[in-house]
Each structure stands twice: as structure tokens, then as C-alpha cells.
Amino acid sequence: MSERKVLNKYYPPDFDPSKIPKLKLPKDRQYVVRLMAPFNMRCKTCGEYIYKGKKFNARKETVQNESYLGLPIFRFYIKCTRCLAEITFKTDPENTDYTMEHGATRNFQAEKLLEEEEKRVQKEREDEELNNPMKVLENRTKDSKLEMEVLENLQELKDLNQRQAHVDFEAMLRQHRLSEEERQRQEQEEDERETAALVEESRKRRLLEDSDSEEDTTPTQPQPALRPNPTAILDETPKAKRKAESWERSVGALGSRPQLSGLVVKKTGLDSIISRRRAPPLPGAMKNGQAAGPAPQMPSTSSLSQLGVYSDSEDSSGSN
């Protein structure tokens, strides 16, 4: 098993390499190699992004009639991972990079564009200085001024670093820690105050709700209406007016109903006294321990005559 891993092969003593026939292969022959995408690119056919470092089985060939300082330039063929379109790129030994040739566009080459722009500006400056001596003087003045500004900024940075070298960082950290603890303590006190205020507010609200519920359950006792004094009207109205009002209340106005005016007979004072004397005794009264006899039958009197008696009694009480 160990012999198969041996890399050195046995060459016999009569081995002659010149006798080995050489194969006649074309110069533009292609080889299949395994490589990774050298930069980010996007397929022109389907728009698929191919990121740097993606592995492909590519075909490699040597570019004919192109070289840089005797170094050959190689071309690589890969296929898009989505639409299988062919993408080609080749080496660029001058810039130690790769150049896109066909099938895709290169992305994120800002650094390369910046370098190319710097090279272009530098070349234009050299061309101007070659034909214009005043331009050389101006450029030198600008360079010296820029160098002085850079030195001033560098000196300011050095001074700043020296001042900061004497700073006690431990004291700064301690002060920061104390300020942080003070801030946390203040926040905790504020939270406690807010919590106490909320608890007090909820307690007051609960008390108000309890008091409202008690008021709803206990009905309010109605206040007794003040009874008017029955004799107050006697002191306010005259005697004649009181008589007329009492008569109208009991009988009614005679002028409004003339058919009843002939039926009402106003008794005199003597008739009222006689009628009171003839009033029967109480039915439950006892005389000498024996039941009283049946009351004598009195002639029935009309309601209008009783109203007249009521008005005469008021006249007699008023006169007394």
C-alpha cells in the first residue's frame, strides 16, 4: 500500500529522454483549471451577481500576440451560475490584476478607478511642468505650503498627546463611576416618587368610588314639606274678603250658576242656635248605667242647608 504513494519513479540506466517523441500540440490549446472569481461581477445576460471567491471549472488559454515584458497573458472562460452564459476575463500583469473582457461587468472597482485617476493627474502635471517653468514654481510653492500645514498639524497633535500624558485616567474613571452611581440613584428616587404618587392616586380614586357606591345604596330621606299655618291667611286678608272666599269655596259663586241661587237659603243666627240645640246625643252615651233610648228621628236636611250652617258658624266665630 505504501508503494503507490511514492512520487519518485525508477529510471533504468539505459533511459534516454531524447528518444521520447514530442507531441505536436497547437499553441492556442486550452486547459481545464479550477479557479476562483478574481473580483465581483454581474452577468450581462441575466443580471446574476457573481461574487469574488466563487469557484469555477474554467478553461484556460494563452492569448496570442499579447505579452507584457515577456510575460504571457492568459484568458479564462467561465459560465454564469444562472443562465450558463460564457464570461471571459484575462490577466493584467502590468497592474497585477485581472481585466473583464466579455459577458459581464465588474463591480466595486472604486479603488482601481481612484488609482487610475491619480496616475492621470500625475501624468498631466509632469507634462505641464515639462513645457512651463512657471508652473513648476507654482507647484513647488503649493507643495511647500501643504508640507508646512502638515507639520503644524503634526505638532498640534504632539502637544495634545503631551498634555494628555499628565491626565490621571484612574481619577477620571472614578469620577465617571461616581457620576453614574449618582445618576442611577436619582433615577431610582424618581421612580419611587412616581410609584408613590400612582399608589396615592389609586387609593384616592378607590375611596371616591366607595363613597359614591355608599351614597347610591342609601336612599336620601325626603325633607318634610313645611305646612302652612292655617291662621296665617286670617291675619293677611280682611274679614269681608275672608267671608266671600270661604262661601265661594263651600258653595261656589252664585253669579256663575243662577239656577242654584234660589235653592240656597242663608240661615240667621237664631235658626243656627235652634238647630244646634236639637242635635241628637251620641249613640254610645250611657245615662245612669243604662243604654240610652233610640234617638228621635230628625228631619233630613239638604247639603245646601248644611253649607249654610257652616258659613253661619264662621260668622259667629268671627264676631266673637
From TrEMBL:
Gene Ontology molecular function terms on file: metal ion binding
Bias type Polar residues, positions: 298-308
Origin superkingdom: Eukaryota
Pfam families: Saf4_Yju2
Alphabetically ordered keywords of this record: Metal-binding, mRNA processing, mRNA splicing, Nucleus, Spliceosome, Zinc
Ranges of compositional bias, category Basic and acidic residues: 200-209, 236-248
Region (Disordered): 179-320
InterPro entries linked to this entry: Saf4/Yju2, Yju2
Residues binding Zn(2+): 43, 46, 80, 83
Chief localisation class: nucleus
A GO CC annotation given for this chain: U2-type catalytic step 1 spliceosome
GO biological process, one term: generation of catalytic spliceosome for first transesterification step
Cellular location(s): Nucleus
Entry-linked PANTHER family: SPLICING FACTOR YJU2 (PTHR12111:SF1)
Quaternary structure note: Component of the spliceosome. Present in the activated B complex, the catalytically activated B* complex which catalyzes the branching, the catalytic step 1 C complex catalyzing the exon ligation, and the postcatalytic P complex containing the ligated exons (mRNA) and the excised lariat intron.
Function: Part of the spliceosome which catalyzes two sequential transesterification reactions, first the excision of the non-coding intron from pre-mRNA and then the ligation of the coding exons to form the mature mRNA. Plays a role in stabilizing the structure of the spliceosome catalytic core and docking of the branch helix into the active site, producing 5'-exon and lariat intron-3'-intermediates. May protect cells from TP53-dependent apoptosis upon dsDNA break damage through association with PRP19-CD5L complex.
Family indicated by similarity: Belongs to the CWC16 family. YJU2 subfamily.
Protein known as: Splicing factor YJU2
Organism: Ovis aries (Sheep)
Primary gene name: YJU2
